[in-house]
Amino acid sequence: MNEAFKALADPTRRQILNLLRERDLTAGEIADHFQISKPSISHHLNLLKQAGLVIDKRQGQTIVYSLHTTVMEDVLGWMFSIMGKKDKEEQT
Known about the structure:
Layout (H helix, E strand, L loop, with lengths): L1 H7 L2 H12 L2 E2 H5 L6 H13 L3 E6 L2 E6 L1 H23 L1
Antiparallel strand pairs: 1-3, 2-3
Helix pairs in contact: 1-4
Keywords: DNA-binding, Transcription, Transcription regulation
InterPro entries: ArsR-like_HTH, HTH_ArsR_DNA-bd_dom, HTH_MetalResp_TranReg, SdpR-like_repress, WH-like_DNA-bd_sf, WH_DNA-bd_sf
Pfam families: HTH_5
């Protein structure tokens, strides 16, 4: 989970996740939304993959990226559990 939080700390990677929330995309399609180099986009995608937030699938000559929703659910579940504990502490 530490890798996921490191990946989420960067605004570009959060934007990539927002794009992938709408639909699966190739690296080129993702890069079209940014004014940074394609190697930089690849670097961000690799960090998201290492964190388990993104998965890739080869489709012929291209690689398509999509959200790995299971890991996202785990991260969100942990965050909500922390928030629930904090709310209970504030009520006492």
